[in-house]
Amino acid sequence: MRKINILSASLIMLVFASLNVGAQIKLGDIFKKVTEKQGTTTAATGTPSTFEIGQGIKEALQIGVSAGADRLSVKDGFLGNLAVKILMPPEAQKVEKTLRGIGLNKLCDNVIVSLNRAAEDAATEAKPIFISAIKQMTLTDATNILLGNKDAATEYFKRVTTAQLIQKFSPIVSTSLNKVNATRYYSDLTTQYNRLPLVKPVNTNLTEYVTQKAIDGLFIEVAKEELKIRDNLGSRSSTLLQKVFGYADKKKS
Which residues form the signal peptide (predicted)? Predict the structure, then answer.
């Protein structure tokens, strides 16, 4: 009987010991999770260093310009996007209206499609130019962008990349205009129009026009991405972005 009691007591102690160990493990896990959450919250708040601001802005802009350039460099990237779709040059819009009025819709449509295809070809070369500009950005530039207007990054890109973009885009656009028959279509269009009595002949530098419109379209898309990360908390996909742009929110409030 004594042996049974000793055995029962031992078993009870063993069970309690096991429960205690299990409770400690669970409490340890809970404590660890709470600590990690607190650490993450702390890391995502507070005042970022100048270095963190620089890294955060570069990270945000790299995400933004990549998304914008990728959207435009695919088929219908320009043609299917009403915000950036390239229409007839201003001096040719009267031509388009006149020719559509006499049933030459297909000719006009061919010109518009081919102009947008040329811009889509050129957009594939934009990303490396933007990335290079981001890498060369100074800490002062980054701070000014972070605490500046909602289009501060876009304006920075316009200032430092426009000349490079024109230089890079022009030969691509010129080649693409020929490849997609835009030059021929436009020549056919203006020839048809210039044959009409009492009209003023139209002459457009298509390469220059499409190059500028392609660059304008890129900046529109970059501006969208910049606004998204400034205004949408869900777009701040890392602790660094949360900290840097959270700090900017507080400074502007």
Answer: 1-23
Q: Which residues contact 56 (CB under 8 A, 6 or more apart)?
A: 48, 142, 146, 240, 241, 243, 244, 245
User: Residues 17, 20, 26, CA angle at the centre, nearest 5°?
Assistant: 145
Six token digits for residue 189: 């269009």
Domain assignments of the chain as residue spans, ordered by start: 47-252
- 110 alpha carbon, distance to own chain's centre: 29
Residues 6+ apart with CB under 8 A from 249: none
Residue-wise pLDDT for 100-127, tens only, equals 998 989 989 999 999 999 999 999 889 8
- In eight-state DSSP terms, residue 85 is -
Q: Which two tokens stand for residue 56?
A: 């955060």
What is the C-alpha to C-alpha distance for residues 184 and 168, in angstroms, rounded to an integer? 23
Q: Identify the H or E element spanning 248.
A: helix 239-252
Q: Is 162 exposed, middle or buried (0-12, 13-18, 19+ CB in 10 A)?
A: middle
pLDDT tens, residue by residue, 42-57 = 456 678 999 999 999 9
Higher pLDDT, 194 or 234: 234
Contact (Cβ atoms closer than 8 angstroms) between residue 252 and residue 231: no
The identity of residue 12, as a single letter, is: I
Alpha-carbon dihedral sign for residues 196, 201, 207, 209: negative
Q: How confident is the model over 167-178, as pLDDT tens digits?
A: 999 999 999 998
Residue of 126, 222, 120 whose CA lies nearest to 173: 120
Place of tokens 């031509």: 95
